[in-house]
Amino acid sequence: MSKDRLIIFDTTLRDGEQSPGASMTKDEKVRIAKMLERLRVDVIEAGFAVASPGDFEAVKAVASVITESTVCSLARALDKDIEAAAAAIAPAPRRRIHTFIATSPIHMQHKLKMTPDQVIEQAVYAVKKARQYTDDVEFSAEDAGRSDLDFLARVFEAAIQAGATTCNFPDTVGYNLPFQIEETIRALLTKIPSADKAIFSVHCHNDLGLAVANSLAAVRAGCRQIECTINGLGERAGNTSLEEVVMAIKTRADIVDVETHIATQFIVPASRLVSSITGFPVQPNKAIVGANAFAHESGIHQDGVLKHRETYEIMRAEDVGWHANKMVMGKHSGRAAFKARLEELGIALASDDAVNDAFARFKDLADRKHEIFDEDIQALMNAQQAESTSMRFELLDLEVTSKMGVAPTAHLELRMDGEVIKTTAKGDGPVDAALRAIEAVARSGADLQLYSVNAITTGTDSQGEVTVRLERAGRIVNGLGADTDIVVASAKAYLHALNLIEKPLERQHPQQLEGI
Fold this sequence. Notes:
Blueprint: E1 4-5, E2 7-10, H1 26-38, E3 43-47, H2 53-65, E4 70-76, H3 79-89, E5 95-102, H4 105-112, H5 116-131, E6 137-142, H6 149-162, E7 166-171, H7 178-191, E8 199-204, H8 211-221, E9 225-228, H9 242-251, E10 258-259, H10 267-278, H11 299-307, E11 326-327, H12 335-344, H13 352-368, E12 372-373, H14 374-389, E13 393-403, E14 406-416, E15 419-426, H15 430-442, E16 447-455, E17 464-472, E18 475-483, H16 486-502
Parallel strand pairs: 1-10, 2-3, 2-9, 3-4, 4-5, 5-6, 6-7, 7-8, 8-9
Antiparallel strand pairs: 11-12, 13-14, 14-15, 16-17, 17-18
Helix pairs in contact: 1-2, 1-10, 2-3, 5-6, 6-7, 7-8, 8-9, 10-14, 13-14, 15-16
């Protein structure tokens, strides 16, 4: 007997982007979307097209390159939102408009200032409007987790009658417990007369650490779509983690009677790509994709695994993409082999000049590092893209002297607005000295909110990938830098963040618009 198909709806590019500092460029969104398509995600929510011209172009760019997955744009239950979404996703062979309106008493009264009947009327209008552009329309009841059950049933029934093909239940504030979600979904499917005419979906937030558990409970109750993100990325505590929910379903097929079409061997590569682009490192003990997910330190565990893997491992590491996949190349390696590896990693460069630049960076790294891993290549590409965004500040040279008992000193040569400037600064450590030297020139007025270092691969010659988060006047940006010299990587990351924060704001941050 075949199992029911579970649709995996990935919202890394929309809800995941609502993490502070996680805004992605158009090109970065396209890179991630291509990886999601390789992962065989069913629906890719590419963004919130109406938010700004930049958001619109990003959604349109994704829609222009994705051919297998459905491309979706979020839209409030408003004409301008739906029209923008429709225009942005128009190039995609498979397209969906995802419209929503709040249904909880607190949202209807204090945010919308609308009566329940007015909310239903607006929901019906929005779905009918969206159906003018596509047959694939999803309707979400924002804050469904705190909405009245009977009212939810009325809203969903009206949306289905208006043409909604998917009805989504968002636990917008991560308030529900698994047994509540399961009971509510079962009750809804009983109360809604047309429930068999639409796919029911769930969108869970992780405020209480229950997003995956709640999503699985909803599937057991009858939902056949889960909305999730790579690495559980998202605002506040994040969203349902795609890798966790997919592998829970695959591993516990005896309990969860559904199946996905996800190509699980690309889970780890997708995780690494999203982490490197957003600057959000994956914690070592993160399920499935953390560095320690399949590591065993206990002697008893090691002995058991060596004798029979299933004594302490419930899934195979290689099934999710953990393997010793590395490209060992040196200074004599060819450009063609390098370009072929980029293609295998899903990295497309726009021009021969871009390929030449990337290859030159690769050869430089190969002179300093014996083995080049896929992660190193991803870091090189991220660095190349970071330096192409805006170049008000450019690092020319950096020398740091450090000795026990003596305050480190950084000698910096920087290009700012085309002018070469040299400066010197002391600090509590070599990194602090380097960043103080940069600030002595930039005088940015930004606050350093996060400084994070992550070893890209193993070994003492590993590149260090540094994330720097700066905030100024409410605007938050993440800067990335990678180098085998951690001080240089730190300077690169800080300068990348400065270049971003100095650049005119082209896109309104998604957190400034309401979402689900």
